[in-house]
Amino acid sequence: MSHLQLAVLLGMTVALGPLALDAYLPAFPSIAEGLNISHSNVGLTLSAYVTTLGLAQLVGGPLSDRYGRKPILFAGLLFFASGAVMVSLADTLSDMVVWRIAQGIGGAFCAVSVPAIVRDEVSGQDAARLFGLIGLIMFIAPAAAPSLGALMLMLGEWQWIFLMLAGYAVLLILALNVMLFPRLQPRPPQTTPVKTLVTNYLLVLRHKTTMRFVGIQVLCFSTMLLFITHSSFIYQEWFGLSNNAFAILFAANIAFMAALNLINRPLLSRFSSESLVRAQVIAQCLALVALVTTVQLQGPLWVVAGCIIIAIGCQGGIVPNNMANAMEFFPHLGGTAAALLGASQFTIAGAISALSSLSGDQTLLSITTAMLACSIGAVLLALGAPRAVALAKKSGM
């Protein structure tokens, strides 16, 4: 099938994660009031989902390599839909956290399948382009998610948001079964022992170049997740914006992501993907330096929002290039490599997000400083990335 058709279907699938993260952000105040908990405690439901989304990929990746992409992906969608329905029925924080964890398991099996399918079909710069096209399509989800959440709140209660997510997962099962898997090239599942699939993680962990890109992905995603976790606090509590204003500003982040993603595609014809990663990670860090400086000087909302939009928008170029680089050296272990990348990204970022939610009194300065700290770490790893790739390819790794 064509790259565009493949990108549309895989983009719709990977969009499930951003929808589950962002759609209920405008409902944080309603959930806090309905469950009689604090605003920051609602953030624990997001952290629980993200952390599980990472850890469960360690199981889903090897299973996808062994038993095939379709059964694992469909099992994940069914589990996700069931978890979403149960979240809508939760009446305590603990119940909501438990079912968000269940939802995260299903989301993990979906998340790990998409990059594995891409690696089955293409590699190198072509993979970077396809990841970029998938990212461009899936940007619709996080851009629209807060607005969809706000719409659900206008029509009913916050529970409607999770029923919408369940319906979307069921729709994906139908679409993928009819339009995607019958048109993919057959890929026979592995027949190696299960214990070998576990030890395959050691092959990825020992690959220094791949692990460098995993580290970049973890730290850049941590920067973004810190913002997502506290975005309602920043805009709705700190600056006192309405649900609609919050949704507009949140969508602006995604719009800038999409713009950088579009710019990134022609740049791949002139520059290597690893060089682009380095430039985009540095640009993100500079935007966060400006953000922290603005907050310290008590700058206006429009400057704070502008810095955030640029910093978060840089993910539009970082993610596709970095994923292609991280997956490049494992053509036959796509599921395992994708699982380690996703597990590291979501688990560590989720832990950082949870710690920030439990750290006590939140301030705009403490949140933005934490974002900058993660970005500085990514810059340190990215500075050596092009040389690391060149050495790895030269040595035949």
TrEMBL record:
- Broad class of where this protein is predominantly found: membrane
**UniProt KW Transmembrane keyword:** yes
- Give the keywords, sorted: Cell inner membrane, Cell membrane, Membrane, Transmembrane, Transmembrane helix, Transport
**Entry-linked InterPro entries:** Efflux_drug-R_Bcr/CmlA (IPR004812), MFS (IPR011701), MFS_dom (IPR020846), MFS_trans_sf (IPR036259), Sugar_transporter_CS (IPR005829)
Where does the record place it? Cell inner membrane; Cell membrane
What the entry lists under CDD domains is as follows: MFS_MdfA_MDR_like
Residue ranges constituting the Major facilitator superfamily (MFS) profile domain according to the UniProt record: 1-396
A Pfam family reported for this protein in Swiss-Prot or TrEMBL = MFS_1
Membrane-spanning parts = 44-60, 72-90, 96-118, 130-154, 160-181, 213-233, 245-263, 275-295, 301-321, 333-358, 364-385
Which GO BP terms, alphabetically?
xenobiotic detoxification by transmembrane export across the plasma membrane
Q: Name one GO cellular component term.
A: plasma membrane
Topology relative to the membrane? Multi-pass membrane protein
MF GO annotations: xenobiotic transmembrane transporter activity
- Keyword Repressor in record: no
Tell me the PANTHER family matching this sequence.
Answer: MAJOR FACILITATOR SUPERFAMILY (PTHR23502), POLYAMINE TRANSPORTER 2-RELATED (PTHR23502:SF132)
Which family does the record claim for this protein? Belongs to the major facilitator superfamily. Bcr/CmlA family.
Protein name per Swiss-Prot or TrEMBL: Bcr/CflA family efflux transporter
Species assigned in the record: Marinobacter salinus
